[in-house]
Amino acid sequence: MNANERRCFESFAASTPSCENAGCSLLAVPQLPVFSLAFICVHLRTEFTNLIRMARSKSSKSWLKEHFDDEYVLRAQQEGYRSRAIYKLMEIEKKDRLLRPGMTVIDLGAAPGGWSEYAVRKLGDKGRMIALDILPMQPIPDVEIIEGDFREDAVLDKLMELIRPDRADLVFSDMAPNMSGVGAVDIPRSYLLAELALDLAQQVLKPGGALLVKLFQGDGFDDYHKDLKSHFNKVVMRKPKASRARSREIYALATGFEL
Ligand SMILES: C[S@@+](CC[C@H](N)C(=O)[O-])C[C@H]1O[C@@H](n2cnc3c(N)ncnc32)[C@H](O)[C@@H]1O
Question: What atom of ligand 1 comes closest to residue 107's alpha carbon?
Fold first, then answer.
C-alpha cells in the first residue's frame, strides 16, 4: 500500500464509523491484497460521500417539489405576480384595509416585489411607494427602489433622505434573513431585522400610522410584542393562509402610532 492509499484507508476507517454499523466487514479482512483494500477504500469512500449528497439533495428536492406544487406559487405564476408573498398581503388587506389613495408606504425586504406591486396600485397618483431590499429588484412602475442592506447606516440614511421632509403612513417589513435551519441562529437574526423596522417606523410614521411586520414565534416574540404595544394603540397578529402552516412566521399589525 503506498502512502496515499494508506492515508485514504486510515482516514476512511477513522471517519466512517457507520461502515461498521452498516455491516461492512470488508475493511477488517487482513488477507486481502493491498490493491483490493485500496480499491475498496476508495469505493466505499465514494459511496459514503454519495449517500450524504443524496440525503442533502433529497431535502432540497422535496423543498423544490413542495415549492412548485404550492397552490400560491401556481396562482402567482398564472396571475403574473412576482411572488407568492403577494397573497399574504392581499389577505391581510382584505381584512384590515390598510391601503388608501395618497398614502406614503415603505416596503422593507421588498424583493422580488409582490407587496410593492400590489400596494402601489392602491395608492393612486398622489401616493408614494418606496421599496428597499438587499437584493436587486426589477423596476416596478411608480415605485422608488433602494438596493442595500437595511442593517447598514448608509442605507438607512439613503431612505431617510428620500422620505424627508415627508412622513410615512405605513411601513411594511417582510424582511427575513437567510435561514440556516437552526432556530437559535435564525430567530435572533430575524428579530434584529424586526427591531430595525420598528426603529424606522418610530422615526418616519405620521401619528396614527401603521406597521406590518413579519415575526417568528420563539424567543424575543413577547418582548417585541410588548414594545409594539408601547408605541401603537392596537396590535393584532395575522397568519394569512399563504403563510405555510409549519412555518413559525406570523405578521404583527400595529396601528395607531403614537408620537
Ligand atoms: C420573504 S422575502 C420578501 C418578499 C416580498 N415581500 C414580496 O412580496 O415579494 C424577504 C426579503 O427580505 C430581504 N432581506 C433580508 N435581509 C435584509 C436586509 N438586511 N436588508 C434588506 N433586505 C433584506 C431578502 O433579500 C428578501 O428579498
Answer: 6
